[in-house]
């Protein structure tokens, strides 16, 4: 059963300007393993985290550091949750999170589907 869906789109040029103006955004928004990625990959991961929050319905008690976007051995994206993000998912009956991301034509986009029993 679908427990939530979320989508987000990020303008790459705007995201890059924000990061240049506010260097503290990178360590605030991304885990250590995410930080070294190219700007278009960071924008897609930001969109993924926003889409997850939308799928959950709110971001109460969840920090950006608790939402980590990773890739499996085949390059498919997914989430690793930490801390209170795990509790928020369990509280809402979420047992799985599906993620797809893309970037092209100056934008990055992510779509999330949460499922549960």
From TrEMBL:
<comment type="similarity">
    <text>Belongs to the P-Pant transferase superfamily. AcpS family.</text>
</comment>
<feature type="binding site">
    <location>
        <position position="50"/>
    </location>
    <ligand>
        <name>Mg(2+)</name>
    </ligand>
</feature>
<feature type="domain" description="4'-phosphopantetheinyl transferase">
    <location>
        <begin position="4"/>
        <end position="94"/>
    </location>
</feature>
<feature type="binding site">
    <location>
        <position position="8"/>
    </location>
    <ligand>
        <name>Mg(2+)</name>
    </ligand>
</feature>
<dbReference type="GO" id="GO:0000287">
    <property type="term" value="F:magnesium ion binding"/>
</dbReference>
<dbReference type="InterPro" id="IPR004568">
    <property type="entry name" value="Ppantetheine-prot_Trfase_dom"/>
</dbReference>
<comment type="function">
    <text>Transfers the 4'-phosphopantetheine moiety from coenzyme A to a Ser of acyl-carrier-protein.</text>
</comment>
<keyword id="KW-0963">Cytoplasm</keyword>
<dbReference type="InterPro" id="IPR008278">
    <property type="entry name" value="4-PPantetheinyl_Trfase_dom"/>
</dbReference>
<dbReference type="InterPro" id="IPR002582">
    <property type="entry name" value="ACPS"/>
</dbReference>
<dbReference type="GO" id="GO:0008897">
    <property type="term" value="F:holo-[acyl-carrier-protein] synthase activity"/>
</dbReference>
<protein>
    <recommendedName>
        <fullName>Holo-[acyl-carrier-protein] synthase</fullName>
        <ecNumber>2.7.8.7</ecNumber>
    </recommendedName>
</protein>
<dbReference type="InterPro" id="IPR037143">
    <property type="entry name" value="4-PPantetheinyl_Trfase_dom_sf"/>
</dbReference>
<keyword id="KW-0275">Fatty acid biosynthesis</keyword>
<keyword id="KW-0276">Fatty acid metabolism</keyword>
<keyword id="KW-0444">Lipid biosynthesis</keyword>
<keyword id="KW-0808">Transferase</keyword>
<keyword id="KW-0460">Magnesium</keyword>
<keyword id="KW-0479">Metal-binding</keyword>
<dbReference type="GO" id="GO:0005737">
    <property type="term" value="C:cytoplasm"/>
</dbReference>
<keyword id="KW-0443">Lipid metabolism</keyword>
<dbReference type="Pfam" id="PF01648">
    <property type="entry name" value="ACPS"/>
</dbReference>
<dbReference type="GO" id="GO:0006633">
    <property type="term" value="P:fatty acid biosynthetic process"/>
</dbReference>
């Amino acid at each position: 059963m679908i427990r939530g869906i979320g989508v987000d789109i990020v303008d790459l040029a705007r995201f890059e300007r924000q990061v240049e103006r506010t260097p503290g955004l990178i360590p605030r928004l991304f885990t250590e393993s995410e930080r070294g990625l190219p700007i278009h990959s960071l924008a897609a991961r930001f969109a993924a985290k926003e889409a997850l929050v939308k799928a959950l319905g709110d971001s109460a008690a969840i920090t950006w550091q608790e939402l980590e976007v990773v890739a499996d051995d085949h390059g498919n994206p997914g989430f690793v949750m930490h801390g209170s993000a795990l509790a928020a998912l369990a509280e809402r009956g979420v047992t799985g999170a599906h993620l797809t991301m893309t970037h092209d034509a100056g934008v990055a986009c992510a779509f999330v589907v949460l499922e549960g029993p």
